[in-house]
Automatic annotation (TrEMBL):
Its EC number is 3.6.1.-. GO terms for cellular component: cytosol; nucleus. It comes from Dichomitus squalens. It comes from the Eukaryota. This is Decapping nuclease. It catalyses: a 5'-end triphospho-ribonucleoside in mRNA + H2O = a 5'-end phospho-ribonucleoside in mRNA + diphosphate + H(+); a 5'-end NAD(+)-phospho-ribonucleoside in mRNA + H2O = a 5'-end phospho-ribonucleoside in mRNA + NAD(+) + H(+); a 5'-end (N(7)-methyl 5'-triphosphoguanosine)-ribonucleoside-ribonucleotide in mRNA + H2O = a (N(7)-methyl 5'-triphosphoguanosine)-nucleoside + a 5'-end phospho-ribonucleoside in mRNA + H(+). Decapping enzyme for NAD-capped RNAs: specifically hydrolyzes the nicotinamide adenine dinucleotide (NAD) cap from a subset of RNAs by removing the entire NAD moiety from the 5'-end of an NAD-capped RNA.
Amino acid sequence: MSKRRHSGSPDLRGKPAKRLETDAGTSANDHAPVLLSYPSTSSQQQSTRAVPFQQPTCLLTFSYTPQRIMEFGDSALRYYIDPPPGADLRYGYERWIKRPEERARLDTLLKAIERVLHISDTNMGPGSGKKWLRDIALVTWRGVMTKILTAPYEERDSCVLNAMLVDGTLYLEEHLTDARLAEKEDLPTRQRQQTYYGYAFESWCTSSRPGVPERIHGHPTGWGGDVDTNVQWCSVVKTKLGDSRLVIGGEVDCVREHFNGQPDNFVELKTSMSIRNAQDEARFEKKLLKFYVQSFLLGVPEIVVGFRTPAGRITTTQSFKTIQIPRLVRGKPHAWDPQICLRWGQEFLASLKARLSEQASSAQTGPSPTYSSRVWRVTLTPGLGVSVYPLDEEGVKEVQGGEDRVGFLPSWYFEQVAEPAEDGSVPGQGTSGSCDGTTDPT
Ligand code: A3P
Ligand code: MG
């Protein structure tokens, strides 16, 4: 918490950003002004006004099969079960089926939204789905929203996003360059093993049936099955931050006992190094910010943490109630305050939307009819703030990646939701395509 923070005016347009090497392997535009600086994270300066955050409700769930096909339904749903004592997180490493790193597209989340629109049109009359969507301020993955909300406290990693504003709704995807994807694919062995620990914990803690440890021939009792990171169960929720309605999708690790259609029984699983001293404890409590934000965004009420040895053996597990986590860190030197994150999130959304709509309305009267296909690069830099600039043709091409897209949105989606231009044509040039399941529901 000793890091320099920028406080003060929420709108500092014109202040030049330094050249920034980002963790996406790109550099931010040299001249992109800082749109918004982070708030101070020191607790004395905070106002007491709480930012309302509505309890998320589940719109629908979907699963990814081992073939990475997205299907509506709960084929990938798993049930929580206590792991066996001393569970070994190295178990099955050599059999891990690792999903290849890919661009973090919104496609399957958009497929889910398309379904919600269709259901709405069927039940409430044609056009009611689009009317509902027009009221949604933001559509994104939970992982993106977590990075945005925790940015005031982030000390290491930049977050690079692509943004589009279509018919009043903001869409955000994480921007990953080919270089960054290759880097993620080619992790050093040690890091790869550590990443596996998290997935192995998920296998030890889940079963295909509620309350019954998995028994698979040839494996120790309680092993939930060899890890295949293609398989995921996802929830799409709607919620509200301040005045902004959000639709967020993300992976849910498992449920306790049964799934009742809402997040009430969702469980998030996490691993962390065992705590041996005060320094470890402080480190863990700082990490709780991400656990907390990640979970509450989807309405996940419980987080089970498996504490492990450096060699990957579980020593203890502890269940945390998500809403009680902020209380655990309050008043400590390394404390974080969720209200700072929420207020920041609200400001971020308002400023970004204002910036993008300003441009949209001026472009509308200009020569280009494709204003809503404009793509923006949004960079959140630790200790500095957010910069935003519109991509040039080259940049948009890179984002499209040679696929049938308008910006980063698949054409089949864009054509459904973009407002027709004056002459009745839809801005953008793509033809209908199909959803191929390239997403990263984190
Ligand atoms: P842990 O969080 O227990 O380390 P999630 O908890 O978000 O569902 O993610 C499950 C696991 O995926 C993580 O387990 C970790 O092993 C891996 N993982 C998630 N995000 C990661 C990241 N940014 N870098 C490396 N591994 C990650
Ligand atoms: Mg998890």
